Amino acid sequence: MRNMMLAMVWLLPAAALAESATEASTREVMAYRFTESGLARYAQGLKNLSGVKLNCDRSTSSLVIDDAVRRLDSQPGVKSAIQSAGMSTREYVLFSWAIPYNMIAATGAKEGGGAAPAGAQQANVDFFRQHEAKFRELTTQASRLSCE
């Protein structure tokens, strides 16, 4: 019983840390700012990844940016494909994760009279609207990446 209690005490900080890391990742994604150069680099990164086999194991997916970066960087050819587009793996993950968030925000803004929903950046909503066709194309392209 004592060992189980000690194990639970040690697990609590780890669980709290994981939750705070997820929250920090969410805040970082929400704060990420779309730019023309970021869009061009992301598009090139996707193009570079089209010939790379990715490990797309969803059972190990995490909502923590650092975990996603480590997972991608550990796969042969992924880091170099992204970096050759002028983007770090972290920025690639941020950009990737910011797309669905801002797609939802732009849809909510359209239905809500044009203003970005609470927590969303109006500049990103506007950028997404201006480049919606490109974002949809990139989302389709990303869904076609080869998985092992």
Q: What's the short story on this structure?
A:
Helix content is 70%, strand content 0%.
What's the helical proportion of residues? Answer: 55-70%
Classification by helices and strands: mainly alpha
Count of helical stretches? 7
- Name the shape in a single word: globular
Low-confidence stretches: 1-18
Q: What portion of residues belong to β-strands?
A: under 5%
> In angstroms, what is the radius of gyration?
18 Å
Round the mean pLDDT to the nearest integer and report it: 79
Largest sheet: none
Distance between the termini: 44 Å
H/E element sequence: HHHHHHH
Overall number of domains: 1
Number of strands: 0
Describe the structure.
The protein has 148 residues and is mostly helical. It is built from 7 helices and no strands. It is globular. The termini are far apart.
Features:
single chain; about 150 residues; mainly alpha; 7 helices; about 70% helix; about 0% strand; disordered N terminus
